[in-house]
Specification:
Blueprint (H helix, E strand, L loop, with lengths): L1 H11 L3 E4 L14 E5 L5 E5 L27 H11 L28 E4 L2 E5 L9 H22 L9
Antiparallel strand pairs: 1-5, 2-3, 4-5
Length: 165
Amino acid sequence: MIITREIENEIANNRLEHYPDYSALRPHFTSTPHGLTDKSAGSKQRILDLSFPADDPFSINSGIPEEYGTIDYSRIREAISAIPRFGQGSLLIKRDFEHAFRHIPIAPDDSPLLGFEWQGRYYAKRFLPFDLRTAPYIFNLFAETFHWIVADDLQREGIPGEIVH
């Protein structure tokens, strides 16, 4: 089964906290419905419904103001417009992190808020889930830091360039 295999993979990579039974759950453990969604490449992705139940003030996402879930990403035309400034021989590189949010750990005390149950066992995410309203904003803070580290390295090496993210 797809979900079972993914859970086993997540445990093997230390991305899930596993509770052996109900009595081991932390007091603020929240079990959220989860399932599979289709990805563009034809594969499946397991998701948590952190907005369940809809319009309920006790869902995880309902406690997060909507504006914290809004972010404007750079457009490809911004990167393309930099090419004439650097001229012939310039290099345009696109980097996309696979499962980008999985690179950002969450606070251990918040992990039980991102829990779910599968086949009588309980789990909680240890890394930023795609389904969390603030995930894009939080990941962008990481990307900003990465951006400035790379830009600083380019400048110190005397390499002309521009980073758009």
